[in-house]
Amino acid sequence: MSEQIELVITRTFDAPRELVFEAWTERERLKHWWGPKGFTMQVSKLELRPGGVFHYSIRSPDGHEMWGRFVYLEIVAPEKIVFINSFSDEEGNITRAPFSSTWPLEISNTLTFSEMDGKTKLTLQGGPINATEEERETYEAGLESIRRGFDGTLDQLADYLKRA
């Protein structure tokens, strides 16, 4: 068994912690920034509680639609969110990533929100769980791409927070 591969991203936002937390947990806020730049997002379900599901779709400018879901494990407002992220179908069932037959089915993520002088430091830590060796290797090979994707999404969050 190989050691756990983990992505760690830290970003500071010029916004109070409560607002940044709400941007991650409220339907009307999430739809303004979650997903790749240029994509539109629809929330199918948002049950913010341990065991609850955030089920969503994102649509590319050319009309390609992908579904995803979070299953929340822990929520400590406004400090921490722990969830399992997966690609899904329209009904919310876990599916393979549309871009890889060896992408892990489940990615564990922990978000921590800490406030410093009216700004919020967000730390995202994540990595595959219940994954095969091949799935872990695929994830590790994709880490730079994942990082770029999150950077773009978090840029959109920063822009949203300026307007919120």
Question: Which structural traits does this protein have?
Answer:
START-like_dom_sf; 7 strands; Alpha-D-Glucose-1,6-Bisphosphate, Chain A, domain 4; alpha+beta; ASHA1/2-like_C; 4 helices; seven-stranded antiparallel sheet; single chain; globular; 164 residues
Describe the structure in your own words:
The protein has helices at residues 17-25, 27-30, 133-141, 143-163; strands at residues 7-13, 40-46, 53-59, 65-76, 80-88, 107-116, 119-128. The chain has 164 residues and is an alpha+beta fold. It has one domain: START domain (Alpha-D-Glucose-1,6-Bisphosphate, Chain A, domain 4). β6 (107-116) and β7 (119-128) form a beta hairpin. The longest helix has 21 residues, at 143-163.
The stretches of 5 or more residues where confidence is low (pLDDT under 50) are none
State the helicity in percent bands: 25-40%
The assigned CATH architecture is 2-Layer Sandwich
Structural class of the helices, strands and pairings?
alpha+beta
Gyration radius from CA atoms, angstroms: 15 Å
The CATH topology comes to: Alpha-D-Glucose-1,6-Bisphosphate, Chain A, domain 4
Quick one: CATH class? Alpha Beta
Number of strands: 7
Shape: globular
Please state how the strands of the largest beta sheet are arranged side by side: 1-7-6-5-4-3-2
Largest sheet: 7 strands, antiparallel
Domain Activator of Hsp90 ATPase homologue 1/2-like C-terminal: 14-162
Family: Belongs to the AHA1 family.
